[in-house]
Design a protein that fits this description.
Rossmann fold, 3'-5' DNA helicase activity, single chain, globular, 17% strand, DNA binding, 711 residues, six-stranded parallel β-sheet, binds adenosine-5'-triphosphate, seven-stranded mixed β-sheet, alpha/beta
Length: 711
């Protein structure tokens, strides 16, 4: 694309120049929509006859489907065809004006590229270029392209109307901090109930992660609000674009911490034009692979115990087991246990044939442990038994025993031999393992009294159950992933990762999290090294320290809560100033009234408001107070699978990953938040959920975690 001749530089002011260009692009798009080949309309009866279509007709239908999809994409791109422009002169050639949009658009007549897809190699310039005297480079499939940038421009188009043009770099002019100005303009918006794409404002350090090599696992420590979840979703869209021939969306997965979070992020990929990527939780994935042979104990119950103000005594013992189940040593013990179980599988005494020669134990052992060694255990058993059956049949034939009664005898002998093999299923093996392991018990398993009811297990049982499942059945090729994203990975254990590695043999992982938010410490990791060391072939580690979500005041406030506990990376606020954090003392009896008052005030300024409580019990109480006052607020609990936005009452530990325009942390007193690392992290998570406004309410005495506010 070279439009240098179409618009002489600086002939008109930037807004007019872009308004003219936009008009021309929209006209071309309209013409393409009006004149392009229309897909044939088919009625439902025709669709029912799909089986009867000839190969040519099938091809026609596929082409029509593609045309339909292209028209739909074109029509939707007309609302915002592009968001940026970069004028780039590759060494030895003239200037190219590159307009960057969510999707590439070609002029249907000339075939010229009018808009470059944000994921295209040259589009990377738009994100990585930050002045540097105009020098710029990007990597294309043909190699590195070097050159000079003369203009970088942000363009806001809404519903086909040009709204704003901001130049962040103009050759020969004094550079201002205009990139930040544009980013701040975007960050200042109120958010609705869903996470959104950030293609127009991806920052250089985020761009690097999005475009990182797919073959090298990458671990990202990112502070609250640094864009981890958003970046991970953009990375999936990028990888699919870049490796369209090798990767399939259905074979890519993002593991999120809860079903509600999956709902919250569900619109980013469709906005980026990507469908079909699996978005799930580890538990949902594990239960599906285990064919729902077990159920989870109500996940809310464990969370309620974990975050109760006073934990029941049995909880401490349970947590010791949670920690143990997440350790690689335990996985290794499981492997030892399974190898032991395997050793005794071929029944002693060989296979006694009713006619002819029997099979010696040593022969069966050789088949099982040597010849079929590369197969999973149950496949090996199946193969050995099939071979024994064939041997029995051949021996019977060789001695002429083929009549009906001989056949019956033969079948009975095979059955008897089969029965001598121990039956093996993941659940009974797991139970035996828990009984065998010195530091574990079966206390996490619950067998409901009802006959035939499925066993209930806890989330920490699932990785080990999956490991047994893999050992017994292997990995079904349909469960293999081309790429795996683990969000909130600080709550994953090394055993989770090890088990998942079997489903992604290419080791193509993007692992993101924040150790400052590890409020499930027994279940997760303490240091990213634990994961990095699990990739002996190498692993990249990156830190994101800038927080884009919250105002300067909120980040400064939140950082101070964690400082006494020496976090590994402190969040750097982006300079977006907002209201001062409000810390207000209220009388205990007035606490509901105070919360309601602030909710109403904040509702005027925000589209999403959350009241964060310390426990789920408190969330119910505040929710009831809202209902009594006629306030339509949603109660978010562990079993919720959707997030509606508006006003929400949320236990603080369930708010992780979400964000709200305004947040009210209630009951920030010494009784609800102790001077402990865990409670500091809870409060930190709560405060960093706020984009624009944060209000802390407490009754006397204030928690020591923020007593500096009273100094
Ligand atoms: N480059 C960017 N441009 C505009 N907005 C951004 C950018 N990066 C992040 N954001 C915004 O910052 C907010 C936080 O993003 P996200 O939820 O992905 O962060 P996170 O690191 O996963 O946060 P947390 O760990 O606190 O849950 C979102 O509103 C997102 O749109």
């Amino acid at each position: 694309m070279n439009e240098a001749d179409a618009f002489p530089r600086a002939a008109v002011d930037p807004f007019e120049e872009e308004a003219l260009r936009l008009q021309r692009v929209l006209q071309t798009m309209e013409q393409a929509l009006a004149g392009g080949p229309k897909p044939p309309l088919r009625d439902e009866d025709e669709e029912d006859q799909d089986e009867a279509l000839t190969a040519d007709e099938v091809a026609d239908v596929a082409v029509a489907g593609l045309a339909r999809e292209r028209r739909r994409a074109l029509a939707s791109a007309m609302r915002e065809p592009y968001f940026g422009r970069i004028d780039f002169s590759p060494e030895g050639t003239g200037v190219e004006r590159l307009y960057i949009g969510k999707r590439g658009i070609d002029d249907p007549v000339s075939g010229d590229r009018m808009v470059l897809d944000w994921r295209a190699p040259a589009a990377s310039l738009f994100y990585s270029f930050a002045g540097q005297g105009g020098e710029a480079r990007y990597v294309s499939p043909e190699g590195e392209v070097r050159g000079k940038v003369s203009l970088k421009r942000n363009i806001v188009v809404r519903d086909g109307e040009l709204q704003r043009v901001v130049d962040s770099y103009v050759e020969g002019q004094q550079q201002t901090a205009a990139t930040d100005e544009f980013l701040l303009y975007r960050l200042g918006d109120a958010k609705d109930s869903r996470l959104r794409d950030i293609v127009a404002t991806i920052q250089a350090e985020q761009n690097e992660i999005i475009r990182a090599d797919r073959n090298l696992p990458i671990v990202i420590q990112g502070v609250a609000g640094s864009g981890k979840t958003t970046v991970a979703l953009h990375r999936l869209a990028y990888l699919l674009y870049q490796h369209a021939e090798r990767l399939r969306a259905e074979r890519m997965v993002i593991f999120a911490p809860s079903a509600m979070f999956v709902d919250y992020i569900s619109e980013v990929l469709p906005e980026l034009g990507v469908g079909g990527v699996q978005q799930t939780t580890f538990s949902a994935f594990a239960l599906r692979v285990l064919d729902h042979a077990v159920l989870l104990v109500d996940p809310g119950e464990r969370l309620r115990q974990r975050f109760a103000l006073r934990q029941p005594t049995e909880y401490t013992a349970a947590m010791r087991e949670v920690e143990c189940k997440g350790k690689l040593e335990t996985l290794r013990s499981l492997q030892v246990f399974l190898t032991e179980s395997e050793r005794s599988m071929p029944p002693a005494g060989g296979a006694l044939a009713p006619f002819g020669r029997s099979l010696e134990h040593a022969t069966v052992v050789r088949w099982f442990f040597e010849e079929y060694a590369s197969y999973p255990v149950l496949v090996r058993r199946q193969r050995v038994l099939a071979r024994v059956r064939r041997h029995f049949e051949m021996e019977a034939k060789a001695v002429g025993q083929t009549d009906r009664s001989s056949k019956r005898k033969l079948a009975a002998a095979i059955r008897q031999y089969e029965e001598r093999w121990p039956s093996m299923d993941p659940l009974s093996l797991y139970r035996q393992f828990l009984e065998w392991h010195p530091d574990l018990t079966t206390s996490s398993l619950r067998q409901p009294a009802k006959r035939g009811a499925r066993l209930h297990v806890q989330p920490e049982d699932l990785p080990l159950l999956l490991a047994i499942h893999q050992w017994l059945y292997g990995v079904d090729p349909r469960d293999r992933f081309d790429h795996v994203v683990i969000d909130e990975a600080q709550d994953f254990s090394p055993v989770h990762l090890e088990v998942l590695r079997a489903y992604c043999p290419s080791n193509s992982f993007t692992i993101l999290g924040d150790l400052s938010q590890s409020i499930h410490s027994e279940a997760g990791i303490r240091d990213w090294r634990e994961f990095i060391d699990q990739f002996p072939g190498g692993c990249r580690y990156v830190e994101l320290s800038v927080s884009y979500r919250s105002t300067f005041e909120i980040i400064e406030f939140a950082n101070r809560i964690l400082r006494p506990f020496a976090p590994s990376v402190e969040a750097k606020p982006i300079f977006r100033s907002g209201d001062k954090v409000m810390v207000e003392e209220v009388a205990w009896r007035d606490r509901f009234e105070a919360a309601l008052h602030h909710m109403l005030a904040m509702r005027e300024l925000s589209s999403t408001v959350a009241v964060l409580t310390r426990t789920e019990e408190d969330a119910h109480v505040y929710h009831n107070a809202c209902l009594e006052a006629g306030l339509d607020a949603h109660l978010l609990t562990a079993d919720r699978t959707d997030y509606e936005g508006g006003m929400s009452i949320v236990p603080i530990y369930l708010a992780k990953g979400l964000e709200f325009d305004s947040v009210i942390v209630v009951d920030a007193d010494a009784h609800h938040y102790h001077l402990s690392e865990r409670d500091a992290k809870l409060l930190y998570v709560g405060c960093t959920r706020a984009l624009h406004r944060l209000c802390i309410l407490h009754a006397d005495p204030i928690t020591r975690l923020i007593e500096w506010t009273k100094a």
